[in-house]
Amino acid sequence: MSDPVPTPVAPAAPERRVSGVPIRLEHVTKRYPGQDRPAVDDVSLEIAAGETVMFVGPSGCGKTTLLKMINRLIEPTSGRIFLGDEDVTNQDPDRLRRRIGYVIQAGGLFPHMTVATNVGMVPRMLGWEKPRIAERIDELLDLVGLDPDVYRDRYPRELSGGQQQRVGVARALAADPPVLLMDEPFGAVDPITRHRLQDELIAIQGEIGKTIVFVTHDFDEALKLGDRIVVFDVGARIVQYDTPEAILADPAEEYVAKFVGAGATLKQLTLTRVNSLELRPATTATVGEAAAAAVARARAAGDELIVVLDRRGRPISWPTVAEVSRMTTIPATVDEKLPVVGLGSTLSDALDTMLAASQGGAVVLGRRDRLAGVVTVEMIMDVVQRTRQEAAG
Amino acid sequence: MSATQIRRDAAEEVPDEAALGPGASRAGRPSRRSGEWRALVIQPVLVVLGVLAFVLWRATATLSETEARQLGAAALWDSTLRHLSLTAVAAAIVLLIAIPLGVALTRPALRRFTPVVIGLANVGQAAPAIGLFVLLAMWLGFGFWTTVVALVVYSALPVLRNTMVGIQGVDPRLVEAGRGMGMSGLAVLLRVELPLAAPVILAGVRTALVLLVGTATLATFIAGGGLGVLINTGITLSLDSLLISGAVLVALLALAVDWLGRVVEYVARPKGL
Questions:
Q1: CA dist., res. A123 & res. A222, Å (int)
Q2: Which molecular function term from Gene Ontology is one that the record holds (chain A) (predicted)?
Q3: How does pLDDT run across A147-176, given as a tens digit for each residue?
Q4: A85, A143, B136, B250: which has the fewest C-beta neighbours closer than 10 Å?
Q5: How confident is the model at residue B32 (pLDDT cuts 50, 70, 90)?
Q6: Which residues contact B188 (CB under 8 A, 6 or more apart)?
């Protein structure tokens, strides 16, 4: 996965920009008094600028301790830490942390401060001018998909878990830090919101190109988000540090193989994205048009389902031909359960989405939410079949 | 996935949560607050009615000369002011000592002293108040300031304990989030820990104030003055009018102080909680 963002992410950022700096850990050790084994034992690790590196491993393996030593929330017992070429091991920790974004579970938002105050925290500490802070807050809320006019003055308790997490990411990015540390940020949200947040993080990272270190215990999350994955064992021993593909194809030790789990072929689905498939065109109908005409088109094309588009060309529902044939005109009803995936979604997510819906497929959105085609369960099964055959042959 | 799609996804989340979280809580919030607001109005009304009833009784009752002198406007005013100043001075000292001490004892470096200090404060409160007053008077002499010292010792615990409990009750992840984004320890204390602990701390302050108003009646035994004098004289001379007047006035004062405390709590509670 040399280029982890295969789709053009936003019109404004057609090419990937790297604003991160490399991180280098040299012989970092953390020993707690009264424990015979060090929590982190002589770890050396280099993380390239602009890469997303996932730390995975069993709980208690020291991955979180290692993460917190990068922003020195935990002081290393010995070893050196570099951001770029700068040795930050002995730098004032408060100053250091203002240059490192930090995201924790549920966002860690201050409940007595509004969304805007939360997001503007670090810029205020850095002494930015008020108008510049306000502008930055709106820009960031926009980046994480929250309408500034609606959410700026809300308190965290008035947001859903997913929205709080988005604000947490916005807050971490406020002063445009080159490095972002994320400590199991999506652990506390429901699976559907988690997938959505993951997709957004991929899209945002495509725009901003930070160096991200992300701790997770969910191997699928690591496969989906990581440019590289570090698999840790006890004492933060690095068992394997490689791309997701390489780890799946060639686990370094029995330990990694166990961690990857039995469904390695199925996990390939997390590495393949919808845009790599040849999408099927669909019969479409526009709101307000005569139903009979749409039914005739569908029958001619041999389709059993019709994608209904609103007047701006965005899919809003996906009824069967039989359902449409009972109507006179195409209704403007929005189907809340419409299975929708983006071009950048993984096949695994697409499959999840399909399983929750009745159409046996999902509508794929392209740029500006226009219909790009449809993806069906059969298409995904084909990919699984092919991967199996490749693995066997 | 395009940027517009992200935006749309975010917007899509709104309808399902309107049913559950913020919508419900937003609707619930004003009614809860207005309920509290009504309670805040009723209490001073009761106090004012109590004062009016007392004034009415005082104007119509037939009293002996001693009673009339003791219950004269000037004497009552002096006693009440004295009582209030005892309470206010002691409260100010308690706040100045107990809140910083409570904060200090939640800092990692000083945490190990917590049991000792809490133990001492417990002794102060558990000791019978009258015993405490008399013992301190034997040591420091009679008068206003001895009374203040005794009151401080007696009422420091609720403020100290609530300060500690309030700060310890702040989600440690918020403290970590604050430190993690580069706030200094002091900034986290002032901007995160204290504001979030404020409701608990203020509840402790109110408890201490009510305790102070009641306990200050004992000042009369060590020449500290206050409304306790009325009660004490009433008991000594078997003058029920004095005894009851003193008791009623102290009760009304305590209610009024409690109300003031509630108003402060209501106003100072951080928004968004």
A1: 31
A2: ATP hydrolysis activity
A3: 899 999 999 999 988 899 999 999 999 999
A4: A85
A5: low
A6: B175, B178, B179
- DSSP class of B187: H
Q: CA-to-CA distance for A337 and A353, rounded, in angstroms?
A: 10
DSSP A260: H
Q: Are A316 and A332 in contact (CB under 8 A)?
A: yes
Return phi, psi of residue A332, to 5°: -95, 15
Q: Is residue B5 scored above 80 in pLDDT? A: no
User: Is the predicted ipTM greater than 0.90, yes or no?
Assistant: no
CA distance A5 to chain B (A): 10
Pair B156, B118: CB distance under 8 Å: no
> Which domains, from first to last, does chain A contain?
23-99+177-261 (3.40.50.300), 275-384 (3.10.580.10)
Return the structure tokens found at B123.
Answer: 């002794």
d(CA B174, CA B167): 12
Contact A10 B22 (CB under 8 A): no
C-alpha distance from residue A255 to each of A57, A234, A325 (Å): 10, 11, 57
pLDDT averaged over every residue in chain A: 86
> CA gyration radius for chain B?
25
pLDDT tens, B181-227?
A: 999 999 999 999 999 999 999 999 999 999 999 888 888 888 788 88
pLDDT tens per residue, range A315-351: 889 998 888 888 888 888 888 888 888 888 888 888 8
Which of A9, A94, A108 is closest, CB to CB, to B174? A108
Backbone dihedral region for residue A89 (phi beyond 0: left; psi -120 to 50: alpha; all else: beta) = alpha
Q: According to the model, what pLDDT value does residue A10 have?
A: 39
Domain boundaries, chain B: 1-60, 64-268
Q: Is residue B34 very low, low, confident or very high in pLDDT (cuts 50, 70, 90)?
A: low
Q: Pairing state of beta strands A228-233 and A52-56?
A: parallel
pLDDT value at residue A268? 74
Which residues on neighbouring strands pair with residue A238, listed in sequence order?
Answer: A232
* B64-268: CATH number: 1.10.3720.10
CA atoms in the 13 A half-sphere facing the CB of B52: 6
